[in-house]
Amino acid sequence: MSGAGAPTLTVDGRGLRVVVVAASWHTQVMDGLLDGARRALGDAGVEKVTEVRVPGSFELPVAASRAVAAGADAVVSLGVVIRGGTPHFDYVCSAATTGLTELSVRTGVPVGFGVLTCDDEAQALDRAGLPGSGEDKGYEAAQAAVATVVALRAALPDGDVAGRGRYELHRQLRGL
Ligand code: DLZ
């Protein structure tokens, strides 16, 4: 997927509670993604930021789910998955993507998708927001999550009712 055509966003996220869930594989790339997410949240004025580290990208949906249940206004998910010689890549990517998408759609809480799914490490480094990288996917994911919360609140300002519905739905999903 080309990074061309990315929007220029200016976002005011003051007062929002944002949880960053990050996997631990591929440290150098992940450090770049985390730094990008922190910069984006700082640029948006978000002060209430919690970071949760999980082992791999497969564990991102459950961490994001708990973050939503704990009251996050937005979640930023960060992972680095690099293709190997077995179908494992496809299962981890699919589980992370499906889990994060379903969580976001069912609860109404935006989840920024900063999970790199790459053929090799060079592709990942080029998207990590490091010196010499062409793209900054951690920054983009965090900015997108905050921008979506702000856009939805502005367009659908029924925050309290929507919020109660969201928590009730999430409790149902968890069987509480
Ligand atoms: C097992 C595994 C492999 C082979 N590769 C990656 C990877 O490139 N990126 C990543 O985030 N996680 C990887 N994992 C770990 C799985 O996501 C998961 O943590 C384990 O299967 C344990 O549930």
TrEMBL record:
Pathway annotation: Cofactor biosynthesis; riboflavin biosynthesis; riboflavin from 2-hydroxy-3-oxobutyl phosphate and 5-amino-6-(D-ribitylamino)uracil: step 1/2
Residues that bind 5-amino-6-(D-ribitylamino)uracil: 25, 57-59, 80-82, 113
Residues noted as binding (2S)-2-hydroxy-3-oxobutyl phosphate in the record, renumbered to the chain: 85-86, 127
EC annotation from Swiss-Prot or TrEMBL: 2.5.1.78
Keyword Methyltransferase set for record: no
InterPro entries found in the cross-reference section: LS, LS/RS, LS/RS_sf
GO molecular function, one term: 6,7-dimethyl-8-ribityllumazine synthase activity
Catalytic activity: (2S)-2-hydroxy-3-oxobutyl phosphate + 5-amino-6-(D-ribitylamino)uracil = 6,7-dimethyl-8-(1-D-ribityl)lumazine + phosphate + 2 H2O + H(+)
CC annotations in GO: cytosol; riboflavin synthase complex
Active site (UniProt): 88
SUPFAM superfamilies: Lumazine synthase (SSF52121)
GO biological process: riboflavin biosynthetic process
Broadest EC class assigned to this enzyme: transferase
Pfam families found in the cross-reference section: DMRL_synthase
Keywords: Riboflavin biosynthesis, Transferase
Record function comment: Catalyzes the formation of 6,7-dimethyl-8-ribityllumazine by condensation of 5-amino-6-(D-ribitylamino)uracil with 3,4-dihydroxy-2-butanone 4-phosphate. This is the penultimate step in the biosynthesis of riboflavin.
NCBIfam families the UniProt entry points to: lumazine-synth
Family under the similarity heading: Belongs to the DMRL synthase family.
Entry protein name: 6,7-dimethyl-8-ribityllumazine synthase
Organism: Xylanimonas ulmi
